[in-house]
Structures are given as C-alpha cells and as structure tokens.
Amino acid sequence: MNVLGLHSTTFVATVWWIWRHRNMMCLSNKIWSLDRLVINIQSVVETFKVCFSNNFQGDSSDRFIKWNNNNLFSIILNVDGGCLGSSLRVGYGGVLCNDAGFYLLDFFGYIQGSSDILHVELYVIYQSLLANKKHEYY
After folding, report:
1. Which tens digit of pLDDT belongs to each residue from 87-122?
2. Given its phi and psi angles, is residue 112 left (phi above 0), alpha (psi -120 to 50 degrees) or beta?
3. Does the model's pTM come out above 0.70?
C-alpha cells in the first residue's frame, strides 16, 4: 500500500495506534479512552514531522559515533532482554565491540519459562561472557 498525501502521517499513525490498542484489548484486557488514543496519534504525527522534515538544520555528513573509554583497551558489551510478563518465552540479545567501536560478535536467544526481567538481564551478561571467552577477545 502506498500512502501519500497531506494527511498520510496521520493515517499511518492512526492505523498503528488502532492496531496497538486492539492488541492490548485482546492480550491484556486493557481499554484506553478515546482521548488517550488521540494524544498518542498526535504525538506520533509530531514525531514523524520532526524525523522526516526536509528542513533539518544539522550537518548531514556521515559521522561515526562510538563509546569512549578514555582510550583504554576494552571490550564493549551492549545487552538487552525483554519479556511481556508472560512465562512463555523471554528474549535476550547482545553485541560485543572493541575499543574502536568495531563489531566483534553478537548473540541472542530465549529463556523458556521465566518472566523475571532481572534473571534475563543477568543471564544475557553471562551469555556475553561465554561468547567472549569462546572467541578469546580478552
């Protein structure tokens, strides 16, 4: 579907929030007021306008952005885990980079039968140590 025109961002935002609200009703039995839906739609429309504006005033050249560890040799670990309060499946993932910010490896997976987010966060750190040891980046 090709969405163009004056109100295309409003249309896309409305479809998005109707879909999200429907999922919340089906999966969590939560119902939002019409006012809350309208505020969410307006917020996304404003975000679209800022993100996709042709009037961007900044420098449009490519920039390499990296984490700085005071120029010390290090391995940078970025991990995340998530669950929806259900004990069916909890996902995790992570990325290891060197001190120059270059990709070394990534990993991901899931934990069956847990809804404890702290458990997931600690488990993904453990998985990153295993992945790092396996590839001997220390």
Report:
1. 667 778 888 887 777 788 888 888 877 767 777 778
2. beta
3. no
d(CA 31, CA 21): 7
- Distance CA(76)–CA(86), nearest Å, equals 30
Q: What is the DSSP string of 87-127?
A: SSEEEEEEEEEETT--EEEEEEEEEET---HHHHHHHHHHH
Q: Is residue 52 a contact partner of residue 13, using CB atoms and an 8 Å limit?
A: no
- d(CA 36, CA 55) in angstroms, rounded, equals 30
Beta strands in the chain (DSSP E): 75-82, 89-98, 103-112
Q: In Å, how far are 71, 82, 96, 99, 105 from 102, measured between CA atoms?
A: 14, 25, 9, 7, 10
